[in-house]
Specification:
266 residues, mainly beta, STM4215-like, 2 domains, six-stranded mixed beta sheet, 49% strand, disordered C terminus
Length: 266
Amino acid sequence: MLGTYTYHESLRRLTIAFGQIFNNIQIRRKNAADSTLQSLTVPLAYGPKEKFLVRLDQQASLEDRSFAIRLPRIGFEISGIEYDPTRKLSRMGKYRVVKTGTKKRLDYTYNPVPYNISYNLYTFTATAEAGLQIVEQIIPFFQPDYTVTINALPELSIKRDIPIILNSVNYEDTYSGDFRQRRAVVYTLSFTAKSYVFGPLRSQKVIKTVKTDQYSDIGLDEKRESRITIVPDPTTANFDDDFGFTTTIEFFEDSKEYNPTSDTDE
């Protein structure tokens, strides 16, 4: 089992979908007459909080005009992966689809495993006003969750609605030196995505005949009493056809007498 290469990019797709939610946030700077002087789309990037703070240390003075190139900015990262037993599915459940290019085989996988993926979203701004603008464009959509649709397993055409829950919003205003050298206003928003992770993808032939032998007891010397055979009707049916089944029952007495009967189920 372990050591078999399996990678469906489930967490990668989820992370991309999470980032897409916040990729068009804007802030506007206005004058005393409430007229818009500047409108900025806030850059978004994947990375830890410390990475952005170190980059801000390179140019911390608000008096430097080039500082506006660095702020505002949004960053996010995965902060944890935890199994969720409350959403556990049956281990024997399967997803199936006819294999591409053939009608004689199908691909399948067992039910996915539920995991909670934790994300932290960071907003970095030079002023408190800009930070509030960003936060106010986010929190109204989480009540407390926002649902996105993920193409979880394209090979089997499986799509899932993933709720992303806003857990908390924390505020931090750090300083370096006097009040003219505010380093950054940082909001940290904590989220949990209730996702699923799929196991290996397997392939098998389409079952077109099923035979079952019946015995009166389980001893090794017991003789077969009957055989039940089930085949599709018509026999040329493919996996995705709408067909019934023909059931044939054969009875045996001392392995000599043979009395066939048949019954058709639609």
